[in-house]
Design a protein that fits this description.
- The protein is mainly beta and 412 residues long.
- The chain folds into two domains: 30 residues, no CATH class; 356 residues, Porin (Beta Barrel).
- It contains four helices and 18 strands.
- The strands form two sheets. The chain has a 16-stranded antiparallel beta barrel with strand order 1-2-3-4-5-6-7-8-9-12-13-14-15-16-17-18.
- Strand 13 and strand 14 form a beta hairpin.
- The longest helix has 14 residues.
- The chain is globular, with a radius of gyration of 23 Å.
- It starts with a helix and ends with a strand.
């Protein structure tokens, strides 16, 4: 609050024409760099750069707000639009820059999420059409971990409460989609938003073309599990391993990942015929994905990010201990599709879950098709119109749904 008051007073003085000795790093709304800097507050009183240069500490405050209208099918089309939202504060400390020790990184994240859930209240789809949606309001320490690297990052270890989707099934070309199945394969029960949880992960990269990540996590996920009750309700564990292979085709990079997981917690049992079994004491599965850059606007510029990328992913899990037995999805993104809008991203994706024959669904599969355009209005403000068509939402006989809306993202 005090910083807001000081900023308001400073801007008032500027407009009044009084001479002011500004810090050299201060970016004001009338400056040319105000629309291209990474943060709205960048670099207010030099705060971002001074913290990072002097103490090795960087931070971001991000706010996301989705709004969707269900225009046909699903559960309901007569209610007001849904608006899930989340805010997060993320801090990262480089131990070397902080004057402590080399090759270490501390990370902490605090998240608050609320708002109505379009998948539960309006559309009824099994795959969440908005990945920031949650079933209830939450405020939690989402991440709290330490990472240490060895041999110039050829080997690293990470311990703490973490977002596992950054180390497993991490697909670059999926990150701009709003549908939850785009980035997170729904057959993999890893600790991911909003249920980040505790674990230990290690990675090794013996060459630039090959790497392997392996992790062990809490089996029963609880994003609100605190630091004080880290070992409470310790079930499982969840074990996962994922090798990856990098390659190039005519100078365009690609990557293939294949993974397997095992979880020792209890899973509900699903059977086509009567049985006395109600749970299984474990489950397991396999998954994989491929991503490939198809075209680059300036092949000779190593820093150029404009181009067309595509990806596809698959997942499998036993049908007698999961509501779905397989998943297939993929998408295409084009950065710089519109002339003069080099940072904007357009995307088209399709994501399909196949319901278990034994789980009692009316339909065999649910498919979501998403089309979006992500416009960077400034370096810290994004507007993303989005349309999603969902066939057989929820697999319970609902009419096909069509939802329109989008996302606003603000980086303070």
């Amino acid at each position: 609050m005090m910083q807001k008051i000081l900023l308001l007073a400073t801007l008032t003085t500027l407009l009044a024409g009084a001479p002011v000795a500004w810090p050299k790093d201060l970016v004001l709304p009338r400056d040319e760099a105000f629309g291209t800097c990474d943060h709205f507050s960048d670099n207010l009183w030099g705060l971002h750069s001074r913290l990072e240069e002097n103490y090795g500490l960087s931070f971001e405050i991000i706010y996301r707000q989705d709004i969707f209208w269900n225009t046909r099918g699903g559960n309901s089309t007569k209610s007001p639009p849904d608006h899930p939202r989340m805010a997060g504060l993320y801090l990262e400390l480089d131990t070397a820059a902080a004057g402590l020790w080399q090759n270490g990184t501390f990370f902490a994240g605090l998240e608050y999420m609320s708002g109505t859930h379009p998948s539960e209240s309006r559309v009824g789809d099994w795959q969440y059409m908005s990945w920031i949606s949650t079933d209830h309001t939450r405020a939690q320490i989402s991440e709290f971990w330490y990472r240490h690297s060895f041999l110039e990052d050829a080997f690293w270890v990470k311990l703490g409460k973490m977002e596992a989707n950054t180390d497993f099934n991490a697909i670059d070309y999926s990150l701009d989609f709003i549908n939850s199945s785009a980035a997170l394969n729904p057959t993999i029960p890893i600790p991911s938003y909003p249920d980040q949880d505790w674990g230990l992960v290690a990675g090794i990269e013996p060459s630039e073309h090959f790497a392997v990540n392996a992790g062990i996590y809490q089996g029963t996920l609880n994003g609100s599990r605190s630091i004080g009750n880290t070992l409470d309700d310790l079930r499982g564990p969840m074990l996962i391993i994922e090798p990856s292979f990098k390659y190039e085709i005519n100078g365009l990079p690609g990557k293939i990942n294949a993974g397997a997981w095992w979880n020792g917690r209890k899973f509900d049992a699903y059977h086509e015929y009567r049985t006395n079994r109600t749970t299984y004491g474990r489950s397991y599965g396999f998954y994989g994905f491929i991503q490939q850059l198809l075209w680059k606007e300036n092949p000779d510029d190593a820093e150029c990010t404009q181009g067309v990328g595509v990806y596809g992913q698959y997942g499998w899990v036993p049908k007698d201990r999961s509501e779905i037995d397989s998943f297939i999805g993929g998408g295409l993104t084009w950065q710089g599709a519109v002339r003069g809008r080099d940072e904007d991203v357009a995307g088209l994706g399709a994501f399909c879950v196949y319901f278990s024959d034994s789980a009692g669904f009316d339909d065999r599969a649910e498919t979501a098709v998403e089309l979006f355009y992500k416009a960077w209005l400034t370096g810290w403000l994004v507007l993303q119109p989005d349309v999603q068509f969902i066939s057989n939402p929820g697999g319970v006989g609902n009419r096909n749904a069509l939802a329109v809306g989008g996302r606003v993202e603000f980086v303070f």
